[in-house]
Amino acid sequence: MRFLVDAQLPPGLVVWIAAQGHQAEHVADLGLAAAPDRSVWSQAVDTDAVILTKDQDFAQRRALSAEGPPVVWLRSGNMRRRALLNWFAQAFTGVVAALEQGDGVIEVRQR
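Given the sequence above, the corresponding structure tokens read:
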């Protein structure tokens, strides 16, 4: 599975996802850190990637359309990188399972 990590998430998430056996790229590595959402969306479509984001706009756009890349919407407050990685690691198996079932939007909430 391929993930496109959005700008408000740390690049370390790419390394962690790769260590789990998946492909991942950060928008900053692709020159898209300041790009409009439509450019990030197009990149995900072109590369068959899942958008991993904290941006509600991607989740809403995908929820309103039967087409487009899957979106994993991380719903958390601000936290340090290590805390974010630990929190996401706990949810990752469920996220992958939902994506494999064909879910278009997966919302992951901080408890």
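The radius of gyration is 13 Å. Try to locate this feature in the token string yourself.
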